[in-house]
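Try it yourself: sequence plus adenosine monophosphate, in.
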Amino acid sequence: MKILVVGGGGREHAIAAALARNTTTEIFSVMAKRNPGIGDIAKNVLLVKETEVSRIVAFAQENKLDYAFIGPESPLEAGIVDALEAAGIPCVGPVKSAARIETDKAFCREMMEREGIAGLPKYRVFHSSPEAEEFIQNYEGDLVVKPIGLTGGKGVRIMGEQVDRSGAIEYVRSLNGEAVLEERLIGEEFTLQAFVDGTHLIPMPLVQDHKRAFEGDIGLNTGGMGSYSMPDHMLPFVTKSDYTKAIEIMKAAVAAMERAGQPYKGILYGQFMNTAQGPKVIEFNARFGDPEAMNVLSLLTTDLSEIVHHIAEGTLLPSHVSFDAQATVCKYLVPEGYPESPHAGEVITVGPHSNALLYYANVEKTGEVLVTQTSRTLAFVGIGETLAQAEQAAEQAASEVKGRVRHRRDIGTDALLEKRIAHMKELR
Ligand code: AMP
Ligand code: GLY
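Structure, out:
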């Protein structure tokens, strides 16, 4: 099989590595900047922006590719799946109209409401700044302000935490009133990713990401600083009943898309807030999470190339998907100053890391020299029988990296996990 991987981050390195575990699969890559990890795996690389749809389709046709796996959201929004499928190349990833589940937050909320899907927070969609401003002025309690379109996970402002009322008003004004305003949910976040073939949904292990830049969950939101998963594929602050509800919500979303004549095919990512009342949907994404892809794909024991085939054919079964019963901890190294003013162009040196997997992201490699860029640099994934073992493996590798990069030492530690569990106990 010849499979195109679109995207050049840590997530796409993990996708390419998992696909390539099938030795009969040949990987082709499209990415804006050369990811050295993907570069080593791929038979052929096209360096263009992931939204350059017609050039990507031409590359796929020239190389007679069988399937494409779309990593990031921006090419989905640009209609890459529509174009590749029109050229006879089936994709893991939804067509543009179905990707609206992520790319249009108003579409997502309105679909959940229309279909009576559980886990919907109180929300209002606005297209006018004066109306949104008035709503904020009169709202009692904390609100979350979300731009309707894509923001790379960095566009959300939480009133009562990151901004006050006048800051929220200023923010909706800067968005020309194109915003979803919703109640601020209190709880613990978790990620549930699933393979979806249009009809069937097969879940992956639960993961918890860490969005904030610094230890103790302070600082700005980032693309994600790291993430962990547990040997039982659950999280200790998510009960069996919470989990069942989350799965039902995801299945209801897939069924709703199918009923609306926009069957959803690809990876469905559910970002949930586990609240006192159970899981609520923060958002759906139309792709793997980055970093969360690295946790789950490092544990996948079945063949991802085969899964791609079954997603394309609509024949996905639970027996096609299985994961090792181990814990994972993923830690991203990021340039100093990330995310506001990242130090790019710094030489870094990776130390011994034989106990962890290395996934490259936004980093240039010339010979053996690695140079930072403006986004997340590279990640280590530790795998172990226990969370502590996985954490030690990732931490050891991350702390051996020399140069102007940093990482969150607290991700995957028992102390942080205890804090999450205690928070959930306090809420319930
Ligand atoms: P998003 O871009 O929707 O993933 O939001 C980024 C982050 O903002 C989430 O991971 C949450 O931490 C936070 N967030 C988004 N929506 C809400 C909400 N309704 N209540 C509380 N926090 C939220
Ligand atoms: N890690 C969050 C995301 O990929 O959106």
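One thing you can check immediately is this: The longest helix spans residues 240-259.
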